[in-house]
Design brief:
Elements lengths: L3 E4 L9 H9 L6 E6 L11 H10 L4 E6 L7 H6 L2 E7 L6 H10 L3 E6 L17 E5 L14 H12 L7 E5 L7 H7 L3 E4 L1 H4 L4 H9 L3
GO molecular function, one term: metal ion binding
Keywords: Carbohydrate metabolism, Cobalt, Isomerase, Manganese, Metal-binding, Zinc
Pfam family, one: Ribul_P_3_epim
Length: 217
């Protein structure tokens, strides 16, 4: 399975957002990752529908929307209407997870569930067959440029093993501290979708940084 690269708009230059979106359009990026934070589930606030709609206006790549918010069910339709291709909700914020996943699919979006670094992968056992993707957080969510948590490799392997019988085509995404130094090992563990923020947008040549991640083996 070829791996996908999803640069994180959270790390982009918001004063030149159209420029950075067009850079991603013209790069080997597969998706654009959009982190939505509410200042409650995570200790940060990012942006909402106006910025997402502005990104959608110029984006030619699918929008991979990551909801780091409490009670995400309130906003699923709004994010679908704003152009989301995939919607990720956190296991930790959804007491009725099956209902939430079905609601995402009924809106025509891919359904994904994220787990924080401390969340046991076994908690996904009863939902994994219904998902299009699992997002394994390799940092604590809320801020970019954090140090990668090494236990992530084990968690990825556990998710892949769990999905082998019931959902072998499940995408496994990793978000946090992904760069050229660890992407090969992450692929070997079983991940195939990679969110890259600081490693792309802090690079002198952002297009080349994306290409290096895309062409990693």
């Amino acid at each position: 399975m070829n791996h996908l690269i999803a640069p994180s708009i959270l790390a982009a230059d918001f004063a030149n957002l159209q420029r950075d979106v067009e850079m991603m359009n013209n790069s080997q990026a597969d998706w654009m990752h959009i982190d939505i934070m509410d200042g409650m589930f995570v200790p940060n606030i990012s942006f909402g529908f106006p910025v997402m709609k502005a990104v959608k206006k110029y984006a030619t790549k699918p929008l991979d929307v990551h909801l780091m918010i409490v009670d995400p069910d309130r906003y699923l339709k709004a994010f679908a209407d704003a152009g989301a291709y995939s919607i990720t909700v956190h296991y930790e914020t959804c007491p009725h997870l099956h209902r939430t996943v079905q609601a995402i699919k009924e809106l025509g979006c891919k359904a994904s569930v994220a787990i924080n670094p401390h969340t046991n992968t076994l908690l996904l056992k009863d939902i994994i067959a219904d998902l299009d993707m699992v997002l394994v957080m390799s940092v604590n969510p809320g801020f970019g440029a954090q140090k990668f948590i090494e236990h992530t490799y084990t968690k990825i392997t556990e998710v892949k093993e769990m999905s082998a019988l019931t959902n072998p085509h499940l995408n496994v995404e990793v978000d946090g501290g992904v760069d050229i130094s660890n992407i090969s090992r992450l692929m070997a563990a079983g991940a195939n979708v990679f969110v890259a923020g600081n490693s792309v947008f802090s690079a002198a040549n952002q297009t080349e940084a994306i290409a290096q991640l895309k062409n990693a083996k």
